Amino acid sequence: MKELIYIVEDEPDIAALVQLHLEKTGFRHRWFQTAKAFFNGIEKSHPDLVILDLMLEDMDGLEICKNLRNDEKKKNIPIIMLTARAEEIDKILGLELGADDYVTKPFSPKELIARIKAILRRSQKQGTNSEIIVRIGEILAIDSEKFQVSVRGENIDLTTTEFKILEILSNHPGWVFSREKILDHIWGYDKAVIDRTVDVHIRHLREKLGDAGAFIKNIRGIGYKLEI
Ligand code: CA
What we know:
The chain has eight helices and twelve strands.
């Protein structure tokens, strides 16, 4: 059985383009032009993944996202947000409301398909990203299975915390993560740890990575991102 992908998109041209590429890749798909149609559809059968437009006529995509995440039966369905808004603050918002990935328009269909496959692989492994080795600019390689990081082929010795920070940043290069988001990833919702802790770990992480440490950027007043 092929995976079923739902597309929620008010622009027929974009929906057709996405459908064409899903078809070529061998996915099953259904297109919904409004949030209302989508909510009717998802009651009948759950998809393996949802591609969700941010700007719809009857509802904001973020609102739909929040809605799914608050629903016990639907909260684990992966969501890729599709949007024309590229502002970083929106990326954070999309993430915190529970989107799994984010693609900005105009997008490359190839890239969208690659991200869909990556997310399906990840969700089929129930949230663990083992087997994935992330490579950043041919210098930095992160192996989440072996907990190994190397810069130009040389292994770097990181603490578990430093590794986890690098892992969350490198899973979504270019995305900005608030200190709070980073803390949640590392310690769950233990509020005893303060934001400043993240800065200290990031400083150590950068030092250990040497010149590859420059990939980690501080976004003033918001948090951190990894930029290639
Ligand atoms: Ca739209």
